[in-house]
Amino acid sequence: MIPILERVSAVLGALVCLVGAALVAAEQASLGTSGAADWLSLWPLPGLALLEWGLLGIAALIGVLSGRPALLTLAWVACGALATLVILGAFSIGPTVLLALILLTAAVLAASARRTRNLFGDAGIFLLGTLANFALFALLLLLENIA
């Protein structure tokens, strides 16, 4: 059985991801000149970053609540990818993503410790998620500048 604090932390972290991404998207879409929400102006960036933010929260939540080692590894990757969003969005979405990152990492860390996993290996997976997300955003920015 999953301890209550672990469960609450994971659910709150995922909610911060989903609600935060939705609120930022709604705010950015409403900044259009016509007064109506312009959702297409969010694509591809920052729309992909906001979509990723929500999906990473869901992935980490599933990883913590599933009880399966492979999905817990996915949760570590998701937390690492959230760390990239904290750094890249430092002056915009960063503080809110940081709150989600703290909540989700606490839940994933507790789940890993409870299952007696190698925390050094999990830290490496976290770092791998961070670097992979940096590479993804570098590729997106490169492709956006080419097109």
What percentage of amino acids are in beta strands? under 5%
Structural class: mainly alpha
Number of domains: 1
Categorize the overall geometry.
Answer: globular
- Rg computed from alpha carbons, rounded to a whole number of angstroms: 16 Å
What is the N-to-C order of secondary-structure elements (H for helix, E for strand)? HHHHH
- For the secondary structure, the number of strands is 0
Largest sheet, in brief, is: none
The parts where pLDDT drops under 50 for at least 5 residues are none
Number of H/I helices: 5
Query: Mean pLDDT, as a whole number?
Result: 92
N→C terminal distance:
50 Å
Keywords for this entry:
147 residues; globular; 78% helix; mainly alpha; 5 helices; single chain
What features would you describe in this structure?
With 147 residues, the protein is mainly α. It has one domain (4-146). Helix content is 78%, strand content 0%. The chain has helices spanning 4-29, 47-66, 69-88, 94-114, 119-146. 36% of the residues are buried. The mean pLDDT is 92.
